[in-house]
Amino acid sequence: MFRTVVNCIGVRVKAQDVTAVQKALGKKSLLAIRNVRNVVSDGENHRVVLLDPASNKGEDELKRILSGIDFEAKDHTVEVGYEQLQADEILRKLLPSEIEVPSGFETIGHIAHFNLRPEHEPYK
After folding, report:
1. 73-101 pLDDT tens trace
2. Which 3 state secondary structure label does DSSP give 9?
């Protein structure tokens, strides 16, 4: 129920070029999913820098931005599960769409205490 697949573009570069690629692309262009690294290993000497799917960077634009850096653009998939979701995202998946997600809660360790409204009672 909580597993989704995110399709994004990966920029495969030599390990020593990762920092230069990240600086050239900018922080807003990198994949930003909670508890998911935006740089993954691809062999012993190569890494793949994952881009945010919303950044819409095509290969021509990547060539312009990363001029002077040897890279390969390729499709990459990231599996997002329960561990990467925040409480409100989990509740949106659990509750019917017409029910407002409760926003106020306290956490004690790994337990969340919600103050539910009457419309939430059937789903507690």
Report:
1. 889 998 888 888 887 888 888 888 888 88
2. strand
Using the 8-state DSSP alphabet, how is residue 30 labeled? B
Contacts of 27 (CB under 8 A, 6+ apart): none
Q: How far is CA 115 from CA 4, 17, 64, 105, in A?
A: 29, 49, 52, 6
Residues of the chain with CATH 3.30.70.120: 4-83
- CA neighbours closer than 13 Å in the CB half-sphere of residue 40: 15
**Strand, helix or coil for residue 18:** helix
The predicted-structure confidence for 41-66, as pLDDT tens digits, reads as follows 988 899 999 999 888 788 888 888 88
The class of domain 4-83 in CATH terms is: alpha beta
Residue 1 predicted with pLDDT over 90: no
Of 33, 68, 72, 65, the residue nearest 49 (C-alpha) = 72
**Residue type (1 letter), 108:** I
